[in-house]
Amino acid sequence: MIRAIIIIIFACFVVCGEAAAADIPVVRINGSINPVVADFSVEEMQRANEALAPAFLIEIDTPGGLDSAMRRIIQATLSSRIPVIVYVAPAGARAASAGALITLAADFAAMAPGTNIGAATPVSIGLGGGMDETMKHKVVNDAVAYARSIAEQRGRNLDWAERIVRDGASTAASEALSLKVIDLVVDSRAELLKQLDGRRYLREGKEHRFTLGDAAPVVREMGWTRRILNAVSDPTIAYLLLMLGIIGIFFEVSQPGVILPGVIGTLAILLALFAFQALPVNYVGVLLILLALILFILEIKVVSYGMLSVGAIVSLTLGSLMLIDSPDPVMQISISVIIATVVSCTGFILFCLWFVARSQQRHIISGQEGMVGEHGRAITAVHGSGRVFVHGEYWDAYAEESVAEGAEIEVVGVGEGMRLQVRAVASTATNTRE
């Protein structure tokens, strides 16, 4: 009986294992190729290899991304034991820059009608106006050699691989097929797998055959943590979150007790720091932005006649410009966004500073200091001591010069024991604030 149960359990494990192995994992890259996307793609590819899946499918629609993230995916693709399929889809999609090289590295490359591939020239954007000619020559030659080596390993068009890097060439799906850049142009994922069934691919110099069998494509989705990180890892969104956090923290410091801006600001800064894990961040830029926040806060406490604010604006601008340290335009923050954000943030902060400065210059109307300058009436004659009626209350008072009973008085100070120092005023008209 026990032996029969063990056999049944073992058979269930075998059947489940075969069912899992029959699945073809599908990962969709829709957007820039960043470390989050690379981690997820490589992790799923490794799982597919461990499960001995018939193949691993990447559906791609990307403008490009980080070189380091691209190389991680390509390395995993070239070392995969199972065939890797890259499909540029849906219609209207593109595999540009890093996406083009990932497509070249696939065992089977396919495109949907109406898609394009190419434009993989390294680009440098920065404060210094980009790379000098010598460095640019080195970077381009390195990228050309990398693209040609991938194309050679997969038996694709070497000259085309060089042209997309050196000249930034981009090719439509039908032309890419005729140039032997890709293997198929198909309308759908199902049609792609059907046409690939039985095709051969090389692995370690040996020829293997891709067999579809009963395998079905199964889309793998990111977990919620990666989804959040991927959503906020867009450089512009991460930058805007950081600036929102700075505004919230500044408003809370300048107007203590409001609470909500401080909470929102703290959450925004934490999300921005979370996103910076997946971005090529220059932390000098982050420090300059934080320095700007400190200078704005000091403007509240220190009389600098606007010099601290000027320094804060300069620091904020420089920090914003050098925040993202990447030559890829996909990972850059638009200059127009930076200008609009800096102007909006500094305008809001300076507006708050103006209100703070104005409130500090107002006459005090509460507490002991608020009594000075108030008018009232002497209830008794006042000299060494006496009683007065001020601001709706009776007070003990004294005066350096005698004040007659019933005379209008003005408070000139508050002494020990809350005794008011008063003096007589010329008019005896009743104070409207009594």
Summarize this structure briefly.
By secondary structure, the protein is an alpha/beta fold. It contains 15 helices and 16 strands.
Write the layout of secondary structure elements.
Elements: H1 2-22, E1 23-30, H2 35-50, E2 56-61, H3 67-78, E3 84-88, E4 94-96, H4 98-104, E5 108-111, E6 116-118, H5 133-154, H6 158-166, E7 170-172, H7 173-178, E8 184-185, H8 189-196, E9 200-203, E10 206-209, E11 216-219, H9 224-232, H10 235-254, H11 260-276, H12 283-301, H13 307-321, H14 335-360, H15 367-371, E12 375-378, E13 386-390, E14 393-398, E15 408-414, E16 420-424
Parallel strand pairs: 1-2, 1-11, 2-3, 3-5, 4-6, 5-8, 14-16
Antiparallel strand pairs: 6-7, 9-10, 12-13, 12-15, 13-14, 15-16
- The share of residues in extended strands comes to 15-25%
Query: What topology, given as strand order, has the largest sheet?
Result: 8-5-3-2-1-11
The percent range for helix content is 40-55%
Q: Can you summarize the main beta sheet?
A: 6 strands, parallel
Determine Rg (CA atoms, Å). Answer: 36 Å
Arithmetic mean pLDDT: 84
Shape: elongated
Structural class: alpha/beta
Highest CATH level, the class of the largest domain: Alpha Beta
CATH architecture of the largest domain: Alpha-Beta Complex
Q: Catalogue the unreliable spans.
A: 9-21, 124-129, 428-434
End-to-end CA span:
102 Å
Number of domains: 3
Helix count, DSSP H or I runs of 4 or more residues: 15
Can you tell me the CATH superfamily of the largest domain?
A: 2-enoyl-CoA Hydratase, Chain A, domain 1
Q: Based on DSSP secondary structure assignment, what is the total number of beta strands?
A: 16
CATH topology of the largest domain: 2-enoyl-CoA Hydratase, Chain A, domain 1
